[in-house]
């Protein structure tokens, strides 16, 4: 009865919140938990198999991939959407999924869990599988909190019987290896693909004895084939990516001799893909089902998403920590076509209020001739610009436009592709702006088409003189703005 009451109250709160325009994504979970304290335990009544996915980067993509692959194979799936990966958010997902009376049983629950929330989530509901993607040191680590976090996660797993699917290439994830006996390891073979390397920072040291690792292959950050004299070494993988390369629509993987074309952009997605393939094999999917699902997958908004703006393909990717920033930059710099880089930086709660992590992005690697313009945007545009300046980027290349729409319009006038990095709360408005630009362009093309003057429709800008560049009024040049907002920053 208490449980039913919690569901009804949660549903009512969610509806009320949506009616007053507050979205209501987690409120229903908060209310349900007030009535039924360990509400998450009911996840068991919602799915026959439960998979948790956690880690610093890639958990949303991995979770979405798994849910998609399972669904296209005909299984019913309960999944939480991004932003609701804490216990209240997951509880809200259960409330939403519940019919008026009781619960609805699914084949699989695919639940993304925030790292800090994992111990609580495990205490309330033990999953059948836990996937750990990676752990990247960011600003947290200045206080040694990553190690603490990992220890807490490990403690919560000690007395439970969970099958772990671990990224063997990450020494941090490998710290989970002594917990259970039935671990599955996945990774990338030594010569799986060509990756641009960047600074590893503090992560190249063994977490057990603090000695520097010996690497025979480095893929991304600290991910690769490592070994330490103390015996802490990359484990043998059960399933591995033998080859990964950029295909026409996305990366292509060879796993266990089978070829998997995907729609995923960015070489680093090979990790998310192999974790998803492994999980789906465990759920009984065959190669054909996984292969078809991967080809049909449409990535969620803002994950290496392409937009056709003018005659150019623009790219947008979410960046929320240095590791994510570095892989995004190395993806963006794979071609040497003329381009501009837009960095949209906000500091709301969801972005992380401390933005000192931007100093750990290797912005220096973007200081190249073909990157002709650097636009700093968002609430903390000035900090983004300052980071660019300290990367050695010439000041005349750096433009500060805090309004994202202005940044887009400015870049569009330049007439060559823009590659955009956006923090969490910048992402959705940026997608909206770009979709609108792309949409208006479609309309414009149709309109011009009715004139049947080919050269006009092809180069309308040059004909009408709109291609001329005007400095937007609110543009702030670098001079005189560098001293502001230098809180917590290291030059
Ligand atoms: Zn060691």
TrEMBL record:
The keyword Metal-binding applies. Residues 318-427 form the Lipid II isoglutaminyl synthase (glutamine-hydrolyzing) subunit MurT C-terminal domain. It comes from the Bacteria. Belongs to the MurCDEF family. MurT subfamily. PANTHER family: LIPID II ISOGLUTAMINYL SYNTHASE (GLUTAMINE-HYDROLYZING) SUBUNIT MURT, MUR LIGASE FAMILY MEMBER. HAMAP family: Lipid_II_synth_MurT. This is Lipid II isoglutaminyl synthase (glutamine-hydrolyzing) subunit MurT. It comes from Neobacillus ginsengisoli. The gene is murT.
